[in-house]
């Protein structure tokens, strides 16, 4: 259970659910189990086996001691695809060397079959990612991961697109396609298409972006910026949601990274904060970016109370030219018709104004310096070049 659950909150978030990594070509994964019965006495030529939900546990000899009888059994190979399912195994025992069998009980668990290592994962992380990518798989070891060469979708082999130097416009490799299917499935747990999906934790609690818990910690050193924070409080800031999405991808074998977004300092040709200033005066200001305001888009959980930020966190997936913004459930891709990158598309769709502080570095018309700095919101930004940095 989650040892960090807040006081009064049910301890329902499992930190170590039952999960196994999928099988791969030439490397089968199996489930090991030790079904145990209360028993006092000495066992003879006894055996135990089990079967259920596609798993068969080969019969193995029974041991006894300390008032128990048990067997160490191993299943057949697990599938090569991601899965999430209730696992019910019917156990049988033989006391005549396997000639006849009788039922001794049923075990029930939930099994997560993951595309990547999932040691120490929260159950909600495995549940969202495994349910989303169920029936899919990431690229196998050694499998080529290469996107389609037709980047702009025009069906023509343009300059710079012939990555294989074979004069042919190649389709995406099977490994890349497999990875994309996993990414799309997981993203479908976060995004409702062009907005938040409002996902729930495994116990049915809605997960919020800038909900009450996050707002109460605003401007403190205790922001909700980690996966553990989101699992504990069912709430998080952009840092928590960005890292949650990276974790969802990682547990299914997909490499991704969180990317910070910060505003750049204004250049000398940006609008001056004082009416009547000419271009010469304008160059005598040093502009420092303070932050930006985003549009009134709903965040996860249906919130949009917080709109003014100093920075933001999004996610990029290795090999896929997109910007994923899990806080708002929005995904941005390049627009080859306009030449805009996915990053530019994010800025255009997300930010409505920037905040700058202007510091006077010269003298006024009468050689009198301006007495103080000026702060200004700039909203006429639709046709401007990018004003943010993606780390």
Write the layout of secondary structure elements.
Elements (H helix, E strand, L loop, with lengths): L18 E3 L10 E2 L2 E3 L8 E6 L2 E7 L1 E3 L2 E3 L2 E2 L8 E12 L7 E13 L8 H10 L41 H17 L17 E2 L2 H5 L10 H7 L1 E2 L1 H13 L5 E8 L15 H4 L2 E10 L13 E2 L2 E6 L2 E6 L4 E3 L9 H9 E10 L13 E5 L9 E3 L1
Parallel strand pairs: 1-10, 11-12
Antiparallel strand pairs: 2-8, 3-7, 4-5, 4-9, 6-7, 9-10, 13-16, 13-21, 14-15, 14-19, 16-17, 17-18, 19-20
Helix pairs in contact: 1-2, 1-5, 4-5
Write a concise synopsis of the structure shown:
With 391 residues, the chain is α+β, with helices and mostly antiparallel strands. The chain contains 7 helices and 21 strands. The protein has helices at 123-132, 174-190, 212-216, 227-233, 238-250, 279-282, 342-350, and strands at 19-21, 32-33, 36-38, 47-52, 55-61, 63-65, 68-70, 73-74, 83-94, 102-114, 208-209, 235-236, 256-263, 285-294, 308-309, 312-317, 320-325, 330-332, 351-360, 374-378, 388-390.
């Amino acid at each position: 259970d989650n040892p960090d659950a807040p006081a009064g909150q049910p301890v329902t978030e499992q930190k170590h659910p039952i999960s196994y990594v999928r099988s791969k070509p030439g490397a089968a994964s199996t489930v090991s189990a030790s079904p145990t019965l209360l028993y006092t006495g000495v066992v003879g030529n006894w055996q135990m086996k089990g079967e259920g939900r596609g798993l068969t546990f080969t019969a193995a000899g029974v041991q006894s001691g300390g008032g128990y009888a048990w067997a160490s059994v191993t299943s057949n190979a697990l599938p090569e695809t991601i899965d999430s399912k209730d696992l019910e195994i019917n156990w049988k025992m033989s006391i005549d060397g396997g000639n006849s069998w009788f039922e001794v009980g049923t075990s029930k668990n939930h099994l997560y079959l993951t595309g990547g290592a999932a040691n120490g994962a929260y159950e909600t992380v495995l549940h969202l990612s495994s349910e989303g990518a169920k029936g899919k798989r990431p690229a196998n070891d050694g499998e080529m991961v290469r996107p389609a060469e037709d980047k702009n979708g025009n069906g023509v082999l343009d300059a710079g697109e012939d990555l294989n130097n074979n004069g042919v416009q190649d389709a995406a490799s099977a490994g890349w396609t497999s990875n994309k299917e996993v990414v799309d499935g997981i993203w479908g747990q976060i995004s409702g298409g062009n907005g938040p999906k409002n996902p729930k934790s495994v116990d049915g609690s809605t997960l919020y972006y800038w909900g009450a818990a996050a707002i109460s910690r605003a401007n403190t050193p205790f922001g909700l910026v980690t996966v553990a924070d989101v699992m504990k409080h069912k709430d998080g800031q952009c840092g928590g949601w960005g890292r949650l999405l990276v974790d969802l991808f990682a547990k299914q074998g997909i490499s991704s990274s969180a990317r910070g977004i910060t505003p750049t300092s204004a250049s000398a040709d940006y609008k001056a904060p004082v009416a009547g200033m000419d271009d010469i005066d304008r160059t005598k200001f040093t502009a420092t970016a303070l932050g930006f305001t985003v549009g009134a888009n709903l965040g996860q959980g249906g919130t949009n109370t917080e709109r003014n930020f100093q920075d933001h966190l999004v996610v990029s997936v290795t090999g896929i030219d997109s910007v994923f913004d899990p806080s708002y459930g929005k995904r941005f891709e390049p627009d080859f018709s306009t030449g805009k990158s996915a990053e530019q598309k994010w800025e255009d769709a997300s930010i409505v104004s920037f905040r700058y502080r202007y510091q006077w570095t010269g003298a006024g018309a009468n050689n009198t310096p301006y007495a103080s700095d000026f702060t200004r919101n700039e909203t006429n930004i639709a046709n401007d070049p990018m004003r943010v940095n993606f780390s």
